[in-house]
Amino acid sequence: MKQNINTPKRYAGATNIHPSSHLEQNLLGDLKALCEELHKEDSSSKVRSFQTWKLYWIASNGEIGRKKEVANDSFEGVLGNKCVADPYQFLFIVETALVFIAKALCGAAVNSVINSNAASQIFEWWETEHSTSTLKISSELKRKLKTFSQDELLHLLSNDPLRDIYHSLIPKAIRHTLGAYLSPPDLCKYVINNTAALEVFTSPEKRLLEPNCGLGAFFSALLAEGLRTIEYGSGSKEMLGNAFADRIYGIEKNLGSYVVSRYLHTAIHGLLRGYANLS
Questions:
Q1: Lowest-confidence segment of 104-108, 179-183, 221-225, 275-279 by average pLDDT
Q2: What does the alpha-carbon distance between residue 171 and residue 79 come to, in Å, rounded to a whole number?
Q3: Of 55, 122, 94, which is closest to residue 180 (Cα–Cα)?
Q4: Which residues fall within 8 angstroms of residue 9, CB to CB, at 6 or more apart?
Q5: Per-residue pLDDT for 210 more than 90?
Q6: Higher pLDDT pick, 54 / 173
Q7: What is the pLDDT of residues 124-143, one digit of tens each?
Q8: pLDDT at 242
Q9: How many CB atoms lie within 10 A of CB 155?
């Protein structure tokens, strides 16, 4: 794959969808720049991690196969020369960036260093062999997140923070070609309010399992509805946090999405249970 991706405009022009939240918009520019720098990185760690990730991706989703030509057409203007564009490497870089921002968000929420598991380490290849520009951008993203207040972080987490960013990084044609669909917030809200889902907050014997949690859309919607019940005088943030920590679960086959949703889930119950160092 060609590694001379040097203009953030290729990402900026990928789609007309823009994050609705000012906080998300504030993060998006740096995250696009991080993607550009990650494309340029050339290291043995990147090669090894990519090969491992690709095996998992194909095992979960199947080979791109006949869809690859269509996907490559969609890359024109995003990765440059469509003849050498590799959909797998593009998706790997985007997932690497999303995992980074999810982990940084989690770290800001719980005000602590977040331990990595074997799955998340696949996306941390660049942290040991990074360029100066990559380090500068990633450090700035972490700094911005640490300036967010508790209310700002809760607002971000309750509004499906990575959905619009994901849409901004990956053009619609590519997402649909690969069969990548994220549950829209209105659908999540409808399902939650027309089932017994909210009982998980008040009934210790209840459990909630999201069988295809993606980037955590239903976690965000549950948080939003839970916070709304608190506004009406029912329950507490600690009650919501305990439910998220002990009774709300998710399953996800895609490796990158699993790592992202795991970090966001931890950030939610960490904030709600008061783990963050708040003034």
A1: 275-279
A2: 11
A3: 94
A4: none
A5: yes
A6: 54
A7: 999 887 788 889 999 988 88
A8: 93
A9: 18
For residue 80, pLDDT beyond 80? no
Query: How many whole angstroms separate alpha carbon 71 and alpha carbon 90?
Result: 11
Q: pLDDT tens-digit profile of 7-62?
A: 223 223 233 333 445 556 677 888 888 888 888 888 889 999 999 999 998 888 88
153: number of CA atoms within 13 Å, CB side? 31
List of residues 6+ apart from 275 with CB closer than 8 A: 109, 110, 111, 112
Structure tokens at 251: 């399953």
Query: Which residue in the block uniquely carries the two structure tokens 């305990």?
Result: 242
- Say which residue the tokens 């950030």 belong to: 267
Per-residue H/E/C for the chain: CCCCCCCCHHHHCCCCCCCCCHHHHHHHHHHHHHHHHHHHCCCHHHHHHHHHHHHHHHHHHCCCHHHHHHHHHHCECCCECCCCCCHHHHHHHHHHHHHHHHHHHHHHHHCCCCCCCHHHHHHHHHHCCCCHHHHHHHHHHHHHHHCCCHHHHHHHHCCCCCHHHHHHHCCHHHHHHCCCCCCCHHHHHHHHHCCCCCHHHHCCCCCEEECCCCCCHHHHHHHHHHHHHHHCCCCCHHHHHHHHHHCEEECCCCHHHHHHHHHHHHHHHHHHCCCCCCC
How much of the chain, in percent, has pLDDT values that exceed 90?
39
pLDDT value of residue 40: 84
Burial class for 221, CB neighbours closer than 10 Å (0-12, 13-18, 19+): buried
* Contact (CB, 8 A) for 21 and 158: no
Q: Is 100 buried (19+), middle (13-18) or exposed (0-12) by CB count in 10 A? A: buried
C-beta separation of 147 from 104 below 8 A: no
